Each structure stands twice: as structure tokens, then as C-alpha cells.
Amino acid sequence: MPELPEVETVARGLRAALVGCSIAGVEIRWKRSITTPDPTAFARRLEGQTVADVGRRGKWIAIVLDSSDTLLVHLRMTGQLLLDSGACPDERYTRVLFLLDDGRRLRFSDVRKFGRIVLTTNPDDVLGDLGPEPLADDFTAARFGELLAQRWGRIKPLLLDQRFLAGLGNIYASEALWRASVHPLRQANSLAPDEVQRLHEGIRSVLRAAIAAGGTTLEDAAYQQADGQPGEFSRQLAVYGREGEACPCCGAAIERVKVGQRSTYLCPRCQLLPEEE
DNA sequence: AAAGCACCCTGTACGC
DNA sequence: TGCGTACAGGGTGCTT
Questions:
Q1: Are A50 and A65 in contact (CB under 8 A)?
Q2: Is A110 in contact with A31 (CB distance < 8 Å)?
Q3: What span, in angstroms and rounded, lies between the C-alpha atoms of A54 and A80?
Q4: Shortest CA–C1' contact from A187: which nucleotide?
Q5: Terminal-residue alpha carbon distance, chain A
Q6: Which residues of A are known catalytic residues?
Q7: What nucleotides of chain C have any atom within 7 angstroms of a protein Cβ?
């Protein structure tokens, strides 16, 4: 499932491939993939627009157009943005098709139809509620500590809350907690300064490493880079999806538990839960 | 503020 | 083989 590193990888690929290109036409095959405006206005407004830049905020891809419009894309679970030269073997899951003026196509493919596309002149309407970017310079351990100190809930669901911190999903939340040796059920405001420091570093290091590897592609997952290549980070996952396997650090068997209705993976020996919690 | 749950979807895995 | 059902998951919205 695409999280920050996968979305960043896609955005970089699209930036290299799309800037300067114009949209000649739009074909909408699943209307609910478009949040706003309505499909007719969406297609009409996009035709003739040129891509000025491609960026990312949290798990949103922002395709900035040379008018006052921005195309925001959220891949959710199975969304993909793929470039092709005008044909592809399997069109089954194509939900929206952007026809480019040079004959290529940008294809929004999405098996489970959870992904969403927004065309807006005010991206902040969508992005404004997002928490800090974990890799930004001003997201310091001190700032992270201040934010954690205000929260009484469990740390793992908090890391998944996009209003608290933007971009982490189920995979990297588990990985970051393992890197920091912090148990997922810990109360957020109970973390000691050294734990805050480790978790801050765990989050940033796992995201950086995953971006460097082109993201994570799981066996059954849909994520691919814009050129269709799989990400290589799955081999570096320490705990996610590895129930019963040996912890790379201590060798104990990795456990899977439910936290807030989500599967969470941890090492029961490295990530201890203090008795009072 | 925090937690639980239903919902949106479909492919896959499983039990019978 | 073939059916039915549970499950996975990001985000939203509602309720407790």
C-alpha cells in the first residue's frame, strides 16, 4: 500500500516525465474516483492544461498545472499512476485516463476503487489538515516531543493519524517503532526523551531508506513506480508481514497483534511494554 | 481526546 | 469444482 516513500517515488517519476506536457483529453471510467468537481467539469477543465510541476504532501500527489489548478491524487490502497505509450495489456482496472498531447497516456488504475482525485484551485482545502512532513527540516525531535506530550492515546494509531504526522501508513509505522524499540501500545505522552529521539530517528531513517530503494512492493500489492518497476524495500522490512520470523536484532519470533483494528508487527523482546501501561 | 465501528471495494484464501 | 464467507487496508464519518 502506498505510503510516503512510494508516493514520493511516484511523484519523482512523474515530475521527470510530465513537466511541460499538456493534457489533450480525459476519459473517466469510474466516476467516483473523482471527488470534485463533477466528472464533466473535471474533464473539460483539464483539457489543454500543461503540467508545471509534480510534488507530494503526505500521501497526496500534487500535479501542479500552469493555470491556478492543481490535480491532487490519493492512491489509497491499490491506486497506481502509470505512464504508457498508448496501449497496455490489461485495462481492467483503469479508472481514469489522461491523454497527453504527445500520444502517451497517464493511467489511474485502481483495483479496489478507494483512490481519489481532486481538481482544485485551493489545495489547502484538502491538504490543510495534514500534520508535519516527517522529513522536513523543521520536523525536529524537539518538535516531535512537544506534539507527543499533548497526546494520551497509544503511539501506533497516533502515527497513522495523518493530522498528527503526514505520510506514515501501516508498514512504516510498525518499522519505525521497531527501529526505536518502542512498543506500539505505549501511551504517546509517556515516552522518555531518549525514546522520542529514537522514534524520531526511526521514522526518518526508515522513510529515507525506503525512498532510496524506490519504495516497498509487497507480493500481493499493486504499488509500482510510474515506469511500472516494483520497489525494492520489502527485503529490508524488519517486522512488517514477518510474523513468526526471527527479529533481525535479537532473533526472537516476530509477533502480530491488532492495535486499533490494524495488524501491527513487533519484536516482543526488543519492544517492551512497561508494566504500568 | 480517544476509541470503536461501519463503510467504501475487490481479490484472495479458506472452509465445507 | 464451486459456493459462501472472512479478511486485508487508508481514510472518513458517526457514536460512545
A1: yes
A2: no
A3: 15
A4: B2
A5: 31
A6: 2-3, 59, 262
A7: 8-12
**Cβ of A59 near strand C (distance < 7 A):** yes
pTM of the full structure: 0.94
Judge if the beta carbon of A188 is closer than 7 A to nucleic acid strand B. yes
Number of residues written out for chain A = 277
In which region does residue A192 sit, left (phi positive, over 0), alpha (psi from -120 to 50) or beta (all else)? beta
Scan residues 197-226 of chain A and list those with Cβ within 7 Å of strand B: 220
CA distances from A72 to A115, A161, A183 (A): 11, 19, 35
Please check whether strand C approaches the CB of A79 to within 7 Å: no
pLDDT, one tens digit per residue, over A177-216 is 999 999 999 999 999 999 999 999 999 999 999 999 888 6
In the predicted model, is pLDDT for residue A99 greater than 60?
Answer: yes
Contact flag, residue A157 CB and nucleic strand C, below 7 A? no
Residue type at A184? Answer: P
DSSP 3-state of A161: coil
Under 8 Å between Cβ of A230 and A222: no
Tally of CB atoms within 10 A around A29:
12
The distance of Cα A213 from the centroid of its chain, to the nearest Å, equals: 15
Amino acid at A268: P
Query: CA quadruple A183, A186, A190, A196: dihedral positive or negative?
Result: positive
Q: CA of A112 vs C1' of C10, distance in Å?
A: 12
